[in-house]
Amino acid sequence: MADNNSNNPKNTNEVTDPGRRSFVKNTGIAVGGVAGGALLGGLFSSRSKNDSNSNTAADKGSGKEKRYEEARMYFTRIADFAILEQAVERIFPEDDNGPGAIELGVPYYIDKQLAGPYGSNVGDYRQGPFIGSKAAASDSSLDRGQIFINGLRTMDAESQKRFDTNFVKATEDQQLEIMTDFADDKVEVKGISSKGFFNLLRSTTLEGAYCDPLYGGNRDMKGWKMKEYPGAIASYAHMIEEDQFVKMDQVSLTDYQPK
Amino acid sequence: MVKTLDKVDAVVVGSGWAGGIAAAELTKKGYKVVGLERGKAQKREDFVGAKDELRYDVRKLMFQELNKETLTIRNTLDETATPNRSNDTNAINGTATGGSGVHWNGMVYRWLPTDFEMHTKTVEKYGEKIIPKDMQLQDWGITYDELEKYYDQFEKTAGISGEPDPLRPGQRSDDYPTPPMKETDIIRTFTKAAKELGYHPYRIASANISETYTNPDGETINGCVYCAFCEAFGCDFGAKADPIATVLATAHKSGNYELRNNSYAVRIIHENGKAVGIKYVDTETGEEFIQPADIVVVAGFTFTNTRLMLLSEIGKPYNPKDGTGVIGSHLTAHQRNLTHTRVRGFFDEKKFNRYAGTGALGVTMDDFNVEQLDHTKLDFLHGFCLRTSQRGDRPITNNHVPAGVPSWGKEFKDKSIFYANRRIDVQQQNGALAWRENYMDLDPTYTDIFGDPLLRVTSKFHDQDRNIVRYAHQRGKELLEQMGADHINIPEITEETEFDKTSLSDHTGGGVVMGDNPETSAVNNYSQVWDMDNLFVVGASSFPLMGSSNPTATVGALAYRAAEGMIKFLENGGGQLVKKEETAKV
Ligand SMILES: Cc1cc2nc3c(=O)[nH]c(=O)nc-3n(C[C@H](O)[C@H](O)[C@H](O)COP(=O)(O)OP(=O)(O)OC[C@H]3O[C@@H](n4cnc5c(N)ncnc54)[C@H](O)[C@@H]3O)c2cc1C
Ligand code: SF4
């Protein structure tokens, strides 16, 4: 979400600490949750009104490097992307351990994945008929990209129906209620079970939190740092016999691969 | 237009362990061999810098391309099967040079003497009546003692690191070629608890090897550096015994081997009861070829082996209704949602270095194998090994939490991070026995990219299959209690736990099974087809059951035996290598 803010003139001058734990509270700011997807800067959710800090390095005007790779490749409507941001942050929220999905870059990670072969099921068996259970996303005649669109929009419609507000502006508890029903397969989504969609959302969220940063997720290896996972290490031969836990510095493929 | 190429001595479908061993042994003797491999060319250089969990472990880059071919799955004869569409659902086996052997874990077990004479030994010990109706037990037509030298040969080719199983004295003609791998805190914790309970733990024999080793063919495998990107990955250090580093290198060195990649075998061509060659498609150009040969070796793993026999109309297809025919019968597997489920122990006060490891780094025990148990007191046949291993937990695929914690949200995040390094798993691997209505045939609806029917798998779990796993879980739980785990997750195995698209694994056998009787088996103990002397079908397709540990050493041993048979066949100008035994068994 933070990255939306780079499109958001209201936020461009704010300087914030990227490590801030309270960032999650802001994630409702999601630009343009309403129809039309206009860039309605400053359209904050009720939760974020009190705290309008943003926190990517990209958008601060603080002289930090811009993340040019953070623009949308797959999602055409900003409203869909805003729902995605909220949903992934509910799955993997910011807490005392460290950043949540948004700060880790998960929404852009998912956007990039859906724009590529994974999003259009290039590697899968796609011959019809598509009969039987739709419990898994790959059993659907929709490709993964379409599943995300249908799933996210159904979450929004559910929010309108239940709470008379869109998903992005619903309270955290309301969002969780809807997502729990999706996970429990209680909602109708066209072409896919709600559980199938939810499982895909969950798995891609974890991918984005913990993949090598080359994919645009796990920003600055913060996912790995939280989990004390070292990344691409050539050898553990020197310490594998230790009976104490050994904390190591993180290494990404950018540094590991021969160039 | 199909183009017929010049004849060679042998054509081998597949470049995995099975096909690679056949190619190495034949080419060493001077025979000209053409290998056909559906997947792309790959070599060690492709694995350098490949420590990318998303690409390899999650997107399964080294696994079969399902957009070309997959399996269809159903439970019962009256259902319509549907395809396994994605490696997200289940990635089963490899493709590309070296097959699954490139990205295997490298746990190496010899199966038990009882496995090879399962019918005879069961009846001897308990009488015929202990065998449930619809269970199909069968002897292999070869004993452990006869296979022992081939196990030894496989272990020496691969440089296996290990120590003997204390419960199997006198079953080895020689030590493992290299000593066991390093010992970790997890291994020590399991070993201590197992000994306290009176068990006999020993180190898992490993194809990630403990020190640099040169095999009898002159191929060198480096000592493993415990890099933790092992299963699902190729080894960038040349430290995992795989077909590329060993048997394929030996075949190439002879000057007698040509491996054709992107070459998809579609039929075994035969005339008058003799195999003529393999018809294949070059998937880069779309051209079709026939590669004629004196002997035809099919080593494309269980599914391809069975499917090529059915598509080529060789042997009698198995009929589950009356139990006649053989091709497609005895489908067994270590199923991911049953056999491969784990009991997980969580430790609040203790952290292990779980991020470090290798594919086969662990400790195992045989105290509950088929030969140790008294089945009159149990509600299942066969037995299991119990073990723990430290493969190196990668963060996307390892987010385990104690039972009761949700699978997403605040508490999930907190606990999955807290327990990331505070866990030990106990895994059983149990014997899986064949049932009459678990089998493979050709699907009536779905086809591959060439328009040929897919292979259809029909399979159901039976009470015995569930009972053995439940029993093993309890033993795993006791071990974890002894280790001092604070929370223990035991997978729930209910009546609803059923065979589905996630079940099959790279440990799947059957379809072209071995035996001593052509009525109930497709191949003899040289993997030679009874009805077609110059056709050898090699690999787990010949297993009439799935033993209680990983299968590849047995695939390797049978492949060495088969290669010996092929050489005999070529030297002696043909003929059946095993006399058909007319006494019908089972
Ligand atoms: C992730 C993973 C971990 C494993 N870990 C272990 C372990 O720890 N211990 C153990 O014992 N076993 C393990 N296994 C299983 C082991 O890899 C297999 O038992 C073994 O590789 C089988 O060898 P194979 O040569 O019979 O088949 P494969 O290795 O599958 O080789 C068959 C080859 O034939 C090719 N082929 C198939 N069909 C065609 C066709 N129509 N035309 C042309 N080519 C074709 C395939 O592309 C493949 O290269 C593991 C497997 C996997 C996938
Ligand atoms: S763990 Fe060892 S054998 Fe496995 S890939 Fe790493 S170095 Fe190779």
UniProtKB/TrEMBL annotation, chain A:
Residues 1-21, 45-66 are annotated as: Disordered. InterPro entries: Gluconate_2DH_su3, TAT_signal, TAT_signal_bac_arc. Residues 1-15, 45-57 have a biased composition (Polar residues). This is Dehydrogenase. It comes from Sporosarcina ureae.
Automatic annotation (TrEMBL), chain B:
Keywords: FAD, Flavoprotein, Oxidoreductase. Residues 158-182 are annotated as: Disordered. Residues 437-559 form the Glucose-methanol-choline oxidoreductase C-terminal domain. SUPFAM superfamilies: FAD-linked reductases, C-terminal domain, FAD/NAD(P)-binding domain. Residues 220-334 form the Glucose-methanol-choline oxidoreductase N-terminal domain. The keyword Flavoprotein applies. Belongs to the GMC oxidoreductase family. This is GMC family oxidoreductase. It comes from Sporosarcina ureae.
